[in-house]
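Table S2 (text version). Query chain:
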Amino acid sequence: MNIRQSVDMIESYLDLHRKPVGIKFFFNREEFDNFEIPQRDRKVTYCNSVQLASKGSAMKLTKENQACPNGSMALKMKEVPEPMANGKGRFSKNIYHDVETSKRINDEMLFLKEEPAGIVVMPLENYNEAPDVVVVVGSSYNIMRMIQGHGYYNGYTNNLRTVGLQAVCQDLTTYPYNTQDINISLLCPGTRLVADWEEDEIGIGIPFEKWYEVVEGVKETTNPFERDNKKEGIVKRLKEKGLDASGIIFNQNYDDGSYTGGKIEINI
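Corresponding structure-token output:
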């Protein structure tokens, strides 16, 4: 499987309305400059760059492009100011009950440890070489399926951490980058404002090292977990992309015969 094939597969097995986004950090300026996509010509919040990439845009970003102080801190393009580091900054805005909780939140966030020369943010399908992290934002159903795909090979997901703050920059990017483990985010008010995500969207960040196994895991768990109406869409998308749909089995799920009383009845 290569990157293009993996995107075709995940877009077939899941009904995604946004493209998976690849994030690549460059710590060598010459390599960054030689990467052949345009650099953003104005400022943008990091999370909005991810949102734009999920709709097909591709861009390079440097420190000068950063429009959000929190995103800049996560990406090591700005130092964490003392009021944030000691907890007093967010406590003063009534985000947390006390200074100690506020400081603990900051201490436990995992930011980049080295300042990058630049960052590439673009649809995963555009990459010829592996990015560092893949970010997918979509419905809770699709994120659930990706968690199940990860679980197929890795078992229980023990390290999920989110707090409704610094969602795209930390939860979905620098945390997976540092831990080499997946993470989910319910997003945060800031990114929902500036990146205009849909109200019911959430996200998952996946280190590229795990990307292929997550995709393969989603494929392998289709028959037990997907209902027939979903399988019909999967078969249709697989055939449209010229992929083999013969492995999809209808009228079969992991929980067949498990429930007494049947589905809930709704009287209208």
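Notes on Table S2: Residues 140-154 form the longest helix (15 residues). The two ends are 48 Å apart (CA to CA).
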